[in-house]
Specification:
Blueprint: H1 6-14, H2 35-48, E1 53-55, E2 62-64, H3 72-88
Antiparallel strand pairs: 1-2
Length: about 100
């Protein structure tokens, strides 16, 4: 016999029947380990008064505002083009270059 943990019961109660609506996205928190980057980002958002939400022109609903108007696919395309150009120049990388590559200091 298995009993569901409190966390499992809470997650199950929060779910609704069926799939998530097409326009909805799951919000995941990603920790930022570079404290200097975090402070610079906070200062930029406060200085430029970047809104946290914007009205979607297509749906008319309020959505979380993106700071940059580029997608993950755009970044991946830029990186793959840069890696191809580097390979043409004879440069090789010991690890795969991805948007989630962590810099070693």
């Amino acid at each position: 016999m298995q009993l569901a943990t409190l966390k499992q019961r809470t997650e199950k109660a929060a779910r609704t029947a069926g799939r998530a609506p097409a326009g909805s996205q799951v919000h995941r928190l990603v920790p930022l380990s570079d404290h200097h980057y975090v402070s610079q980002l906070q200062m930029m958002v406060a200085t430029l008064k970047i809104p946290l939400e914007r009205r979607n022109k297509r749906t008319g609903r309020m959505e979380k505002a993106r700071i940059w108007e580029i997608t993950d696919r755009t970044v991946r395309t830029w990186l793959s083009e840069a890696v191809e150009a580097a390979a043409a120049d004879g440069v090789t990388f010991s690890v795969p270059v991805t948007p989630k590559l962590k810099l070693l200091r």
